[in-house]
Amino acid sequence: MLRRLYNWVLSWADSPWGVLALFIIAFAESSFFPIPPDILLIALCVGRPSRAFFYAGVCTAGSVLGGLAGYGIGWFFMGSIGAPIVAFYGAEEQVARIGELYNNYDAWAVAIAGFSPIPYKVFTIAAGMFAISLPVFITASILSRGARFFLVAALIWKFGPGIRAFIERYFDKLAILFVVLLVGGFLLIRFLG
């Protein structure tokens, strides 16, 4: 089923509705849809590298607005809508752990989930459930999702279609490495300060 969804998402790249589909998929992925928008973003950027940053902006806007929808699900509807979504992904224990992370590192928890391959939708719903500051949530979402999508666009714009296979193959590992280096840098600053 996931492979069919993946192929369906990718099929929008050759459609005149590709940009709208990118926005909708980015929106949906931030609150409930299992396929990340990166797939369509990469395909659109490879097809028209000169518009790569436009596509990244569309993807970021859709993702942040979808994150707000996820926040709303957690805030208003955790019992009726949010809990079944979290259960579908088998993330009940993750949500409890996310609550601990929000208590200690609210903006960082959102930012790491927004940039890395961690399911962002779980963090958006949990952010509403745990009532983290909405301005903090929005800011962290814009910065992290924007960094993720604009990085993909920049790589394709700079290196062309040949970078596509590299991005698809190593994105998760590179994102994890980036997060580890980022967190490690802040820990180092904390210990030296």
Automatic annotation (TrEMBL):
**Signal peptide region:** none
User: From what superkingdom does this record's organism come?
Assistant: Bacteria
Source organism: Desulfobotulus alkaliphilus
Q: Where is it found, in Gene Ontology cellular component terms?
A: plasma membrane
Residue ranges crossing the lipid bilayer per the database entry:
20-46, 53-78, 122-142, 173-192
User: What's the protein called, per UniProt?
Assistant: Membrane protein YqaA with SNARE-associated domain
Matches recorded under PANTHER family: ALKALINE PHOSPHATASE LIKE PROTEIN (PTHR42709), DEDA FAMILY PROTEIN (PTHR42709:SF11)
Q: Which UniProt keywords apply?
A: Membrane, Transmembrane, Transmembrane helix
* Keyword Transmembrane attributed: yes
**The keyword Iron belongs to this UniProt entry's keyword annotation:** no
